[in-house]
Amino acid sequence: MAFVTANWNPLGDAFYRKIELYEMGWNLKDGLRDCLVAAAPYGGPIALLKAHNRCSPSARPQLEIFSSSGLPLASFPWKSGVVKQLGWTVSDDLLCVQEDGTVLVYDLLGGFKRHFSMGNEVSQSQVLETKIFHSPYGTGVAILTGALRFTLATNIDDIKLRRLPEVPGLQGAPSCWAVLTQDRQSKVLVANGSHLFVLDNTACTPVTPPGLSPQASSIVHMCVSFSYKYLALLTDSGHVWMGTSNLKEKLSEVDTKIKAPPKQMAWCRRPKSQQPSAVVMWDGLLLVVGECKETIQYHLDDDSILVPELDGVRIISGTHHELLQEVPGACEEIFKIASMAPGALLLEAHKEYEKESQKADEYLREIKEQSLLSEAVRQCVEAAGHEHEPETQKTLLRAASFGKCFLSNFPPEQFVSMCRDLRVLNAVRDYTVGIPLSHTQFKQMTIQVLIDRLVYRKLYPLAIEVCRYLKTPEYQGVSRVLKYWACYKVCVCVYLFTPLLYSNILYFVLFLQLLFNKVALNLSKLTPYCMPSCMLVYTVVMYLKNELNRGDFFMMLRNQPVALSLYKQFCKHQEQDTLKDLFNQDDDHEELGNFYVKASYKEQRLEARIAHLQSAVDEYYKAKNEFSAKTTEDEMRLLRFQRKLEEEKGEQLVGFSLHDTMTTLLSVGLHKHAEQLYKDFRVPDKRFWWLRLKALAEKEDWEELEKFSKSKKSPIGYLPFVEVCIKHHNKYEARKYVSKVTLEQKVKAHLAVGDVEGAAEAAIERRNESEIGTVLSRCSATTDHLLVERLNRAKATVAKK
Amino acid sequence: MAHTEWRDAPELPDFSLLKRLARDQLIFLLEQLPGKKDLFIDADLMSPLDRIANVTILKQHEVDKLYKVELKPIVSSSDQLCFLIRPRIQTVKWISDLVNADKVAGRFRRYKIIFTPQKFYACETVLEEQGVYGDVTTDEWNFYILPLDDDILSLELPEFFRDNFLEGDQRWVTTAGSALHLLQSVYGSFSKVYGIGRCAKMVYESWRELMEEGEQRTRQPEFAKVFLVDRDVDFVTPLCSQVVYEGLVDDLFRIKCGTVELGPDVTSSDKSIKVMLNSQDKVFSEIRNEHFSNVFGFLSQKAKNLQTAYDKRRGMDIQQMKAFVSDELKGLKQEHRLLSLHIGASESMMKKKTKQDFQELLKTEHSLLEGFEIRECITYIEEHINRQVSMIDSLRLLCLLSITENGLLSKDYRSLKAQYLQSYGIKHLLTFANLRQLGLLEEQQAGETLTVMESKVGKLVNDKTVGKLTDAFSSLAKKSNFRALSKRLALVPKSGEEYDLRVPRDMAYVFSGAYIPLSCKLIEQVLERDGWTGLEEVTRMLNGQEFAVTGGSSSSEARNKTDAQRIVLVMFLGGCTFSEISALRFLGKERGCRFVVVTTAITNSARLLEALLDNHA
C-alpha cells in the first residue's frame, strides 16, 4: 500500500502517475521503428504496417493487428497500394488510407469489408497527409492533397466529401494541422509558419492565439484534446501554448527549452482535471507540461507512440504499454502522504481494524465527529474505480464496506455498481482480452459498446458472461450476442462442413435466433462467405419464408440478390402467384408483363387468355415498353380475329402466329381474309409475297402464280419464283420466270433450271470470275467441252483485267 | 487412331476409373434397399446411366422393372420403389404426390430417392411441405462425371447453362466444384489454375474450400494445369454453324451422351441404328476433327483400302485363308460396317450442306464475323425470318449479328423483332427478354453512355450503394466488344487469303478458316503467357473476372517435362461444342500437349438457344 504513491510525480498542484498496463505480448524485432502504427482509443486494437516506407512495388509489407496487450489478432501481407495512414473507426474497423485516396476498410480480425474513394481530385493529386478523427457523427477522414488542399469526410459510413477553401500563401506543406469539431462542424486548423488559419466549409479565417509568446516564428506542432475543447501549440522556440480550441482564452504557456521538433504531442487531461496539461514526446524523452514552469520528464528507452485517451495518454513501446494520467482527485485525497482527508482516515481505520487494533475506533471517531463518514465511503469507492491493481481496489472497497457499517441510511447503489463494474473491467483488462479500459472510459463508452467490442473480437462467452453479470436486458445483451455468434458460426460452418451437415446446424442456429428475437438474420453478412454454397442461403430463405410475414420477407430478399434469384426459381415451380407479388413489390413492370404473357399461354379459354394479355399490355405501358405493349395488343386482335374465323369457317386457327395464320388462310383459299391480315397487321410486302408464292406453289396453281407474278413488281425478285417451281419439279413453269430475274441472279436462275449454257452466257456477259467458276463446276468435261473452253477463255480475260 | 500420329503426345490418364467408382457407389445404394424393387429413372439420366451400369447389372441387384420418370401416375405392383433422379423440385413434387396417393389408397410401400449428383435442400423442403418426409429415404449418388471419350468428361447437366447464366441460380456451382475435387482426389493435384468468368471464379472458390477441408494427398499430379471458362465469355463460337465432322454430326443428328441415332435415310435400311461415337471407332476417330469437305474424299480412299484388304484373300491357300479369317476378317468386317455408316452420314450431310442455302448461310455468318457487308446480312436474316426457314437458325443469326455488332440499331432491332414475332408468335417476347438479359441480343443504347449515368446516380446515393450499382451496371453493360476482341486476338484471319482446309494452319480451320474460336484462343494465349499478363486489355473487354492461381501442392522440381505436365484440363461452365474440342485437339497437336475437356454438357447453337426459349415452363 505504501507504494501506491511511488510512481507519482508532482506538477504544480496536481500529481501525475504512470501505470504499466501490459508487458507487450508481441515480439517485434525492431520495436516500432519504421512502422506505421495506429492504436484505437478506449483500449482498442493496434495495427502495425512494417516497412511501409520501402516503396518498391514488389515488397509486400505485413499488416498486423494486435490487441492492446500485444496478442496477435490478424496478420496478412499488404497487396494494395502505398498506405499513407492507418486509423481505427469508432466501431473498431481499420482504415487504410492509400496514396491515391482510396480507403480500405478491414474488420479487426483482418477481414476485408469494403473500400471507398476520397474523390477524383485526391486520386489525381495524391495524398500528402491524412488524419483520421472521431466526432459525434462518427469517424472522419481528412486529407491534405499534393495540391495543398484539404478534403474531408465527416462520417465514413455516409460519405459526403467536402473540399475546404484554399489556404492563402501556402507554398509547401503546412507546418502542422489538426481537425477540430466545433459548432457541429468539422474544421481544420492549419499553421503556416506563425500564421494560423481555421478552415471551415465556406471560408478560411486567419486567427491568432491570445498571448502566444512573441519569440515564436513558427508553430511546429499542435494537438487538440480528446473532447475538442482545448488546443495545444508547440512553437519553434520550444514554447507550449495551451488554450481553448476556440482560441478565445489562454490557459498557460510553458517553455520546454527544447527546440527540436517533437515526434508527437497529446493532451493529457481528464474530465474535472485540476490543470491543463499536455505530453510532448521527443526521441528518448517524454515531457509533461502543465500550468507551472516545471515539467515532468520521463526517459524513454524505445520508440513509442502516444495514444490520447479521455483521461490520460497511453504510451505504447516495443515492449511496454503504459498509462500516463493526472492522479484522480479521490486517489490523491486518499493516498497523498499525510493526507487527512476522510477517505484516507477511513482506509487507515480499516487497516487498524484488520490488525484488531483499537486505533480503528479512534480514526472512525475522528471522521464521524466531522460527520464526514459518508463522504469517506464515497471517496474510497470512487478511488477504487480509478485504481488499476485489483489488490488496491479490494483494499479500498473493503474500507468503504467497513465504513458503511456505521452508516444507517447510506444508499448502496454506488458501492454495488462499482463492484460490478470493476469485476467486468478486470476481466476485460486481462492480458488475454487486452482491453485496458479505465473506469472513466468505461462509463463514457457504455456497456453496450463494450459488448459490441467483445463480439467483434469473437469473445462470445465472455460477452455473454458480462451481460448476465451486469443484468443487461436480454434484447440488448445475451440474445444480441447469441445472434452475432450464430451468424459467425454459420459462416464457419460453411468452411468446415460438407453441405450435408450444415443444414442441421443451421436449423439449430435459426432456432436460437428465433427463440430470442424475430429479427431477420443479416444475410449480407453471410453471402460473401457462401457465394458458392447457395444451399445455405436457400435453407435460410426457405426457413424465413415461413417465419416472417410476407412484407418483411420480401424486403429482406430485396437486398439479397443471390437469395432472391433462388427464391424466384423456387416460385417458378411452386408458387407462381408469389412470383407475381415479388415483381409487384419491386415495381418490375417489364417482368410482370412477361409473367402475364407466359400465363396467357397456359390458359385454354380464349377469354382468360385475352384477359392475361390485357394485364400484360397494362404492365408494358407502365414499364414504358411501347413495343411490347403494341405487339401484345396486336396479339389480342389476332386472337379475336382467329376466333371469329374459326367460328365462321371452321378452320383451326387460334394460337397460330400471324405467319402461320396467313399460311393456313391462303392454303384453304381464304385470300380475302389473308389480305385483310396483311393490311391490318402491317405485314411487310416481302413476307406477303413469300407467303403467296409458297401457298400457290403448294397447290400447284401455276396459272394463278403467273397472274400473281404479273400483278405488281415483285419485292422479292423473281428468283424465288424460279426456285419454287423447281422445288415442285416444274421446270416448264420455272423457265417462264428466268427472263425476269435481275442480272445479278441470272446465273443462279439458269443453273436452277439446269440451263448450263444460259448460265454460261450470263456469267460471261457479267464478266464475273466467281460466277464463271460456279458454272464451270457444273459443266461436265465430256459433254460440254466447247462450253468449258469458252468459259475458260472468258475467265482468263476477266482475270487479266 | 488419331492421337498415335501425335509424336511425343503424353498419355492421358485412365478415366474409366470414374465409371467404376460411380458404378460401385450406385450398387451400394441399391443394396441399401434390399429385395425386389422397381426403379424410376429421370429421362435425361437414362443414357448416362446406361454408360455406367446396364440393365443386366441393375437386374443383378434386384431391380425388377425399369421406368422412365414421366410425371404421370404410375402402374407398379412392387412394394419397393426407388427413384433415381436429378434434384429437381418438379420431380420431387411428383414423387410426393405418388406417396400421398398411396397413403389415401391405404397402400404401404417403401420409397427411396437417390439424388444425383447431390441433393438440394429445396427438394427436401418439398418433401417436408408435402408431408412425406418421413415416408421416403433419400440418398445421394455422387455421379459427377461421365467420361464420354478419352479426352471428354461431361457432367451431363444441360440445365447448368440456363440455371446459372439466365436464372442466376448458383446451386450447380458446388456440383462443378465437387467434380473438380473428385478429379483431383483420383488423379492428383494441379500445379496451376486459370480461369475467367464469374461462375468460374465461384467454382474455383468452392473447389478450394473442398480442398482445404479434405486431407492433402501428395500424389504425382496427372494434370499440369486447369483452365476454367464461363460459357458467357464466348457466345460467338457456339452460335456458329459447325463444319467439322463431329460437330456437324451433332448439329444434324444430335449426339446424345456420345451416341448418335442414324435414321433410315442414312443407314439405307428400314431401321435406325445407334452408333457410339468415340475414339474406339477407328473410322470416326480419323475423321472427327476434319473439315467436312475433306471427309468424303477420305472415306472413299478408306473404302478403296478396305477393298484391297478384302481382295488379298484371292489367291490365298487354305492356310493363309484360315489365318486371314481368324485374324483380320473380323476387324475388316467391323471397319466395313462403320465405314458404310459414316459414308451414309456424310452423304446425307453433303446433300444438306452443299445446297445453295447452306452456303449462303455460311457466307452470312462469315460476313458477320468479319464485320463486312452488314446491310446485306440484315436483309438475308430478314428474308430468313420472313420465309420461316428455321426458328432456331433465325434466332441464331440475330444473336450473331447483335454480338458481333455490339447490339443492333434501334430501328433494326424493332423491325427484326416484330418480324420474328409475326413468324413465330408473341410468346417469343419472353425469348427476347431472356436473350437481352444474357447480352445475346440487344438494342444499342442511344444517347448517354452508362458511365455517365453511373456517375450521375453515384452523386445521389452513398458509396455502398454505388458499389452495388456499379456491379449492376457492369452486368448491364455486358458489351460483347467482339469486334475489338477479334482485332486484338486476331480471331478473324484476313479475308482473301486462300485457306487450305486439308492442311490447317491454325484453329480457324474448324470454321472453314473464317474464325478462331475465342474460347480456345484465350486458352492458347493464357497457356503461352503462363497467366493473364499482357492480356489486360482483353480481359477488360471480357468484363474481367480472370484469375490465375498456383496450386498448393505443386513441387517445383517436378516442373520438368513429365507427361503429366503437358496435360491441360479445360472446364467449360455452361457447355462446350465439338468444334471447340476439335480446335483444342489441334492446338494440343501443335504444342505437343493434350487437352482434357470437362464440360457441364456438350452444346451447340440449337441447344444453347432452345435452353433460352420460355414456352415450355
From TrEMBL, chain A:
It is a peripheral membrane protein. Its main location: membrane. The keyword Nucleotidyltransferase does not apply. Residues 5-416 form the Vps16 N-terminal domain. SUPFAM superfamilies: WD40 repeat-like. It is found in: Late endosome membrane; Lysosome membrane. Core component of at least two putative endosomal tethering complexes, the homotypic fusion and vacuole protein sorting (HOPS) complex and the class C core vacuole/endosome tethering (CORVET) complex. Their common core is composed of the class C Vps proteins VPS11, VPS16, VPS18 and VPS33A, which in HOPS further associates with VPS39 and VPS41 and in CORVET with VPS8 and TGFBRAP1. Interacts with RAB5C. Interacts with STX17, MON1B. Associates with adapter protein complex 3 (AP-3) and clathrin:AP-3 complexes. This is Vacuolar protein sorting-associated protein 16 homolog. The gene is vps16.
TrEMBL record, chain B:
GO terms for cellular component: late endosome membrane; lysosomal membrane. Signal peptide: none annotated. This is Vacuolar protein sorting-associated protein 33B. The keyword Signal does not apply. It is found in: Late endosome membrane; Lysosome membrane. The keyword Chloroplast does not apply. It comes from Sinocyclocheilus anshuiensis. It is a peripheral membrane protein. Keywords: Endosome, Lysosome, Membrane, Protein transport, Transport. The lineage of its organism: Eukaryota, Metazoa, Chordata, Craniata, Vertebrata. GO terms for biological process: protein transport; vesicle-mediated transport. It comes from the Eukaryota. Its main location: membrane. Belongs to the STXBP/unc-18/SEC1 family.
